[in-house]
Hints:
Blueprint: E1 9-12, H1 18-29, E2 33-38, E3 52-56, H2 62-76, E4 83-86, H3 103-130, E5 135-139, H4 143-146, H5 152-172, E6 178-184, H6 195-203, H7 208-233, H8 237-248, E7 256-259, H9 263-272, H10 275-285
Parallel strand pairs: 1-2, 1-4, 2-3, 4-5, 5-6, 6-7
Helix pairs in contact: 1-8, 2-3, 3-5, 6-7
Amino acid sequence: MASRRPIGTAFITGANVGQGNLLAKRLADRGVRVFAGILPGAPTDLAGDNRITVVEQDVSSGESVRRSAEIVDAALGDQGLDLLMNVAGVANIAVGVIEGVDMEQVERIFQINAFGQLRVVQAFLPMLRRAKGARIANYSSGAIIANPVGAGPYNMTKHAIHGMTLTLRHELAPLGIQVTSIIPGGVLTGMSADSHARTKVTWHAQPPEVLAVYDPLLGNTVKQVLPDMLEKSGSSPEQAVAETLAILDQPKWKPMSYIGKDVKPMGLMRRLLSDTQLEKMIRSTFKIPTAAA
């Protein structure tokens, strides 16, 4: 397999915790000049690492993203940015069935997950264009294959991210910039800790009249089956980051790059099965009842 030019510079969003944090450290270990986007005021263990430049960035704010880009651009000078990793995102808001989900929370999750990645791409593309063979990795989710109940707005944002990725692959191909959607399965980070307890709290926060309809039908799926699967099949952050680094080493990127032992088989099924067959398999796996015709 052909080799590719080593990554010299990288910007990672959402680097104060989780996969973004670990990615910043592992890339720095490789000698990459890392710029780490950190939510303003958030605690981080990266501040004392002289290999990493911490840059305050709130992806839900256009002004904050513009300021962060100006800081990185000034630090780079004439040098380009080789890699942009859009990792920042949230999952534990706007939770519940579509019928009862809070629209203010839906708008909030879109501002962070979907519009946040778009803002960052727009602001950092001039630096990426200066580099030869730059790359963008946008974090989507295995949710766009499984479409889990109770996570509709989150799933919608991740579909939007993948849609942006597919368009960027066409738009940036003439510029020599590769783009992929990172499709992680369940990762056992702080965002997914105590999944059974957290899921029960968020599920029962739905309007009582909505809960009365859906809890008898989907409560077991949301509160028991899905958390059980996460705890049994989820990847550790170290495993997920190791697989991500392997993707970064590939000379040619695919539209979707799967991470995790739970989502990789789903990616295979997505290619082998029809949409209806895949849907039937997922309903069986997640124990989602279907009303008799």
